Amino acid sequence: MSESDFYKTAKSLYEFEAKSIKGQAVPLS
């Protein structure tokens, strides 16, 4: 996996966490 792909994945995960915190918190486990 290239660095750009890793960045995109990390960014999407960060945005998902932010949405979960703002709205309804969805446990990942």
TrEMBL record:
<protein>
    <submittedName>
        <fullName>Uncharacterized protein</fullName>
    </submittedName>
</protein>
